[in-house]
Amino acid sequence: MSDAEDVITRAHHEEWARVVAALTRRFGDLDIAEEAAAEAFATAVERWPADGVPPNPGAWLTTTANRKAIDRIRRENKRDDKHKEAQMVYDNDPPEPVGAVDDDRLRLIFTCCHPALAMEARLALTLRMVGGLTVPEIARAFLVAETAMERRITRAKAKIKAARIPYRVPAVEDLPARVSGVLAVLYLVFNEGYLATGPATDPLRHGLTAEAIRLTRLIRALMPGDGEVAGLLALMLLTEARRTARISAGGELVALDEQDRGAWDTGLIAEGHRLVRERLAAAAAGAAPGRYQILAAINAVHTSARDIRDTDWSQVLALYDQLVRLDPSPIIALNRAIAVAELDGPRVALAAVDRLEDKLAGYHAYHATRADLLRRQGHSQQSRAAYDKAIELAGNTAETAYLTRRRDQLR
């Protein structure tokens, strides 16, 4: 990859949300914002390798996208309100939207996560508009067909336009009713950055994890007493702390039991543990923990162990038991089975995993977990078949390399 191509890739990860948010703020139309941003990046792909990378790539992309948006508006001759059109084209300093925080990307998230949209539409739209994920990447995250995801995003944008959903952060009194959808989106954005689903992307996309953490910090500043906001921030920090240890020099995923714990970020771990302790104190005072708080507590147990052998698996399993009652999803059940394997053995865990086949047959981690449990029982042929299926379904290059090595070790 040339230097210009590398900069364009990095700029897409780091600047997409800023460009889309700035255009949405100015023109008030997600379609215009997305199309103009995409055209600006396409222009960069064409020009930067020949003309050189501009000194400020983000400013160049925003300026170019603004021009593309204006050109599109001028080409459209069927708008009813010509005065408003002229104002959008020539007004360089539109009034500030009213909101609790002056941050374009946070406004964009709350717009995409409006309660008028179905939860699945909120998640998909925000991953596209804020996270900059492609439709195939989002479809993989939801385990649905790309065409279905494309329709979902298109319908969501159309509904925002038809319902005239405002582009702003909600008033303080409205935040509690709006925040759950936003947290779910930020968690998915973070997960895509922490272990990207696409085969053509970097295995780790630090720009996405950093942005998810930044925006979660903003929401925590808005809602300092909300337990789930604190829980999600703690979960992200404790997960991000292990990022550099998760990929080997050869580009292979490094499983938790093989990671160099000395490479973990102790500052992030300390901050995450502090947040978890705060939420544990609140729970002791009668505040029932939510999903993100329990997931953060599980990660706190893992990051407290100096060696994988020191992990308190009974505590991990107890937390998963608590989580299953709140979120009885098959993926949570799959993760719980991994803890069961450490306490009750792979045979008991495999029985629990096999009960999830109907719901997780298209999920690569289901087959990877089965492969490992079968391997631990000495069932090499069945384990190999499960690894083959996991490799077939995995999109991340680092994960594919790890699964391939584990499968080949069976020989």
TrEMBL record:
Coiled coil: none annotated. Residues 178-278 form the DUF6596 domain. Keywords: Sigma factor, Transcription, Transcription regulation. It holds the Pfam family Sigma70_r4_2. It comes from the Bacteria. The keyword Transcription regulation applies. GO terms for molecular function: DNA binding; sigma factor activity. The keyword Transcription regulation applies. InterPro entries: DUF6596, RNA_pol_sigma70_r2, RNA_pol_sigma70_r4_t2, RNA_pol_sigma_r2, RNA_pol_sigma_r3/r4-like, TPR-like_helical_dom_sf, WH-like_DNA-bd_sf. Residues 109-160 form the RNA polymerase sigma factor 70 region 4 type domain. Residues 18-78 form the RNA polymerase sigma-70 region domain. One of its GO terms (biological process) is DNA-templated transcription initiation. Belongs to the sigma-70 factor family. ECF subfamily. This is RNA polymerase, sigma subunit, ECF family.
